[in-house]
Amino acid sequence: MASALLQSLLDEETLSAVGDKRRATASALLRDGLPRPRDEAWKYTSVRALEQRRYANGDVGALTRSLAAHAFELPGVDGVQLVFVNGAYRADLSRIAALEGVTITPLAVEDVASSSHGSADAGGAESRSDAFQRLNTALVGTCLRVHVAAGVRVAEPIHLVFAGAAAQTDVAWQARTRFELAERASLRVIEHHVAADANAHFGNLVAHYAVGAQARLDLLQIQQASDAATLIRRDTFEVSEDALLSLRTLETGSQLTRHEVDVDLAGSRARFESRGVFALHGRQHCDSHLDIRHNAGATISDIVWRGVADERARGVFHGAIVIAPGADGADAKLSNKNLLLSSTAEIDTQPALEIYADEVKAAHGATVGQLDEGALFYLRSRGIALGVARQLLVSGFCREMFADIKPLALRDHLDAMLSAHLSIEFS
């Protein structure tokens, strides 16, 4: 029997309004269900509480809800801004400007269904692992495509805002984006999840990025959704020869977060750099799931993530690197360091490395520990109160991941946001 979540979203009236391919995807999802704890990819993240919830399918009032601009503005970011409220695109709140060589267009919903991964007939644990992507395919309403032409270097970032606003009932929204960078193109993107009001919505975002030969994509992700919200995100990247993907991720919001990052280093000398932080308190649960595949020679991955958990929060980090046959000369590094700030917090880390090629460089490591008592003693001996000393050490531990973010005003804003979030933990 399907869960309450799926029953509330995939009812007969809803499915009668979608095309055959989307209906087949929904039927397969109802058959296979949501991930279970015994499914390896979801071993540390239970969706049992979520599947017992019922949501309205989309927010019928999303296009008229009033939002204050300061809820999602970022200092030093003045370019194109695309705003989505409870998953619906809001042209009145967005800031659109003509960019030479850049096209921003809707993506046909049926095209989404045709290009989605996974088979409706597959069944089993693998299909359950992709359950939320299937749900997105079946119900997605907002689809956006951004294309950057060959050789075009966009100076200002494109700012995507996903704002959660209060509604008459809890809603579930599905959105999908696709970014395409042609050869030698360059683009900065800021993906920003923010709570305009307190809410307990369920957001499901699928994004695909195609980075062409010699292109560069800089992606900054800021996740500060409502404390009661659930946010599921799946990002897939295809990186071509001599291209660079730089990813910076900060996770501080939502009650339940699952963030999947799937990177295919498909071309020779493709590079992937990732710096990330999750900082959790209360009963927050955040699962960061990275899968990196070196599928060509001389490819490079450099991954450093930090995690902090306090009170009864739980963090999960999965970092898997596969160096495929033929990817000779690959260079892969992964480091994950974590801090537990209470005896009831938990962090599970899973670094994994599989090598099937010759003459490669590869290293991975993970630690889970507590604050350095020696450093605390040093700060206290200089007259700094215990709570302030702890906050300084934890903030420094996290801020290192964002030291190279520009402009400076944006980096300072992230520092302040992180400090405000961490200050909840200390008295």
Q: What does this entry look like structurally?
A:
The protein has 427 residues and is of the alpha/beta class. The protein is 20% helix and 39% strand. Strands 1, 4, 5, 7, 9, 11, 13, 15, 17 and 19 form a 10-stranded mixed beta sheet that branches. Helix 3 packs antiparallel against helix 7 (131-139), helix 8 (373-381) crosses helix 9 and helix 9 packs across helix 10. The longest helix has 15 residues, at 408-422. It is globular and about 70 Å long. It starts with a helix and ends in a 5-residue tail after the last helix.
Percent of residues in β-strands = 35-45%
Helix fraction by DSSP (H/I, runs of at least 4) = 10-25%
- Alpha-carbon distance between the two ends: 47 Å
Structure class:
alpha/beta
Topology as H/E string?
HHHHEEEEHHHEEEEEEEEEEEEEEEEHHH
Shape: globular
Total beta strands: 20
How many DSSP helices?
10
- Overall residue-averaged pLDDT value: 91
Rg estimate, integer Å: 21 Å
Largest sheet: number of strands, sense, barrel closure: 10 strands, mixed
> Which spans have pLDDT < 50 for at least 5 consecutive residues?
none
